[in-house]
Amino acid sequence: MERTAPVARGPAPFGPPAYEPGLPVLPELAELLAGAACTEAPEPVGGGSALRDAACAYWSRRGLPTDPAHVAAAPGAESLLLALLAATGGDVLLPRPCAAWYVPQTRILDRHAYHAPIPAECGGVPDPFALLETVRRVRREGGDLRVLLLSVADDPTGTIAPPELMHEVCEAALEEDLLIVSDETYRDTAHEADGAVLLSPAEMLPDDVVVLCDLGASLVPAAWPSGIARFPHTPRGSQLHAATLDALSGLRAVLAGPVAVAVTHALGEPVPVTGRRAAARRLQAVLAAALHRTVTAGGVLARPPRAGSHLYADLDPLRSALSGRGITDSVELEDHLTRRVGAPVPGGHRFGDGPDGLRVRLSTAPLLGSTDEQRMRTLTAPAPLELPHVEEALRLFGSALAELDGGPR
To answer: Facing residues of 117 across strands?
Structure first.
């Protein structure tokens, strides 16, 4: 089993991945935000009644009946996770790799984060046998694991855990009395043509799962920080909800009034919002598949992307050639590819992998274009892969990898 150690405390050795521009803001949401710009009062801690009602309807449409008294909203999933972990106490178990924003929340609280490796078929969840072994070993050594944080549709791997595997992982977590926190930020970005079945842990274990969702992935622009959380309808869930609200209050982590207006509208999923989301999902499926073909043609390993706009590439097959260029770890690999591609290519060390691995997260963001006009043209084109800026971006990725495999320096 891969040895799992607590994350080092103190300042993070590397910052988070840089912001990636997405599609232009939906005009309907921009008008709502502008119309509410004179609103002075922020939302109440945890969100106002209109926003929480909209969140309940959003989850109900996804098979998760929800009561407003068990909903919390905040400016982003990061602040929700920070407040929730403050409420739960104890240490956290994470898959390896995991989203880059998970570990900083544990570090801020001076807690330990432990990693268990993901299975071969997907990311977002630890292998269930590794989960059990890791929890039991950590507890024998004095650790205080209380929370499992997983992602249904995963960043960084762009994969979706099969329902049967999710069942096994959740049953293992329940056996070890872990609270399951399900990050469902990328739930609505699943690539439709792929036919993947997405199952929320809250559908299986409604009394033992807190659901987190950062709305910047599919409903509102990422530059408008907003997130929602759903707590179990149990006494324990009510206690966690109240303690999380206390932590959010102490952080003054409340949504700005104008943002809350736009978020409430988007959670209602009107036609313009769902239409943009569906178009973006179809586009990202095409772009991610093309990027996957490009990088695997160069001898790189990567799971086929099934959600979102990322894939996680393993360049270990090129290790000998990379070593000849002075690239021996993910830090050096990130520096090289970021310079070569002209866009952020964060290394695996940002996602919980050891820096000695040669892994990076690749994004479709460079394929969208460099201006709002190009991005809209990419979104609306019947054949986006034939657009010159998309072809050029794919060519750049391909040539950068070909060079690493012994091509011209």
So the answer is: 96
Residue showing tokens 């820096």 = 355
122 neighbors 157 (Cβ within 8 angstroms): yes
**Intra-chain end-to-end CA distance of the chain, in Å:** 38
Question: DSSP characters for 298-312?
Answer: TT-EEPPP-BTTEEE
* CA–CA dist 195, 328 (Å, integer): 38
Instruction: Write the pLDDT tens digit of every residue in 267-322.
Output: 999 999 999 999 999 999 999 999 999 999 989 999 999 999 999 999 999 999 99
Strand partners, 74: 227
Task: Answer positive or negative: Cα dihedral of 356, 358, 359, 364.
Answer: positive
- Cβ atoms of 5 and 114 closer than 8 Å: yes
Amino acid at 362: L
Measuring CA to CA, how many Å separate 356 from each of 98, 291, 380?
A: 17, 24, 41
Q: Which two tokens stand for residue 41?
A: 């009062």
Any residues with CB less than 8 A from the CB of 173 and at least 6 apart, and which? 131, 148, 180, 208
Convert the pLDDT of each residue in 355-379 to its tens digit: 999 999 999 999 999 999 999 999 9
314: which strand partners? 301, 359
Distance of alpha carbon 163 from alpha carbon 223, whole angstroms: 32
Distances from the Cα of 174 to the Cα of 130, 132, 209, angstroms:
15, 10, 10
How many Å apart are CA 22 and CA 369, to the nearest integer? 9
pTM assigned to the model: 0.93
